[in-house]
Amino acid sequence: MKKANVWVVSALVAMGFAVTSCGPKTNVSLKSDVDSVSYAIGVNFGAGLHENLKTLPGGEANVDVLIAAFTQAIKGDSIQMTPQEAQQFMQTYFMEASMKEAQKNKEEGEKFLAENKTKSGVITTESGLQYQVIKEGDGPKPTEKDRVKVHYTGTLLDGTKFDSSIDRGEPAEFGVTQVIKGWTEGLQLMPVGSKYIFWIPSELAYGSRGAGADIKPNSTLKFEVELLEIVKDDAKK
To answer: pTM (2 decimals)?
Structure first.
């Protein structure tokens, strides 16, 4: 439960940020090395994790409740959950939130694809992959045995860009079968020199596992792909 662990640390950080943001701002007196290292730990965690408090599934964290629980626990006062109960609650909460998010993404993707396939120029294959030809090249089409060089930009359905070889300033090179299923199928439809748009259902992309911070479980993805060349054997060496 990696995400739950992040929230454990975020909860520790929250108290320091909440005190400075919700109450009077005062200078902390650092009278010893222990005081200084305690402050350093707070700064180190806080700088990296403060934003996590704004992205709690279900809404922004209730900082007042968080501070109260933190203070009670760290002082050894009476608490309403044991640490074991708290850990179990967090694990269940985040698991259920992840399942709800995945289901929502799946439904939104299915709705989008159902509408998108009715648009002029959009072709839907038997697998469910959708594509549109922006520019048709006149070169050969790659096969599963080939390596290709491409420029591409990947976005979510809301327009969020999560990857782009164009932004990096260098084409990507890989085997046709070394990518997600939607790419493997789509690349073999493209003559060299072509530029296509692919809309890839989650089951042909990263499925229920998602990928990285931006591609959530069951996300439908959009790629604009330009097939630059099929890499010859002598170019691979």
So the answer is: 0.72
Number of domains in the chain: 2
User: Can you list the pairs that 233-236 forms with residues at least 24 positions away whose Cβ atoms lie under 8 Å?
Assistant: 236/147
Q: Tokens for 143?
A: 């096969």
Q: Is 93 a catalytic residue?
A: no
Respond yes or no: is residue 166 known to be catalytic: no
**Which of 144, 155, 136 has the alpha carbon at shortest distance from 199?**
155
| Burial class of residue 32, CB neighbours in 10 A (0-12, 13-18, 19+) | exposed
The predicted structure's pLDDT at residue 75: 83
- Shared-domain flag, residues 46 and 119: no
163 has catalytic annotation:
yes
Q: Which domain holds residue 223?
A: 108-236
- pLDDT at position 73 is 84
Q: Does 206 participate in catalysis according to the annotation?
A: yes
Identified catalytic residue from 93, 162, 174, 197: 162
Reported as a single tens digit per residue, the pLDDT across 180-231 is 999 999 999 999 999 999 999 999 999 999 998 899 999 999 999 999 999 9
The C-alpha atoms of residue 146 and residue 85 are separated, in whole angstroms, by 54
123 assigned to active site: no
The pLDDT tens digits for 114-147 are 999 999 999 999 999 999 999 999 999 999 999 9
From 17, 94, 131, 152, the catalytic residue: 152
Q: Which of 70, 93, 163, 214 is catalytic?
A: 163
Q: What is the CATH number of the domain that holds 158?
A: 3.10.50.40
147 contacts 176 by C-beta, under 8 angstroms: yes
Our answer to whether residue 223 is catalytic in this structure is yes
pLDDT of residue 134: 98
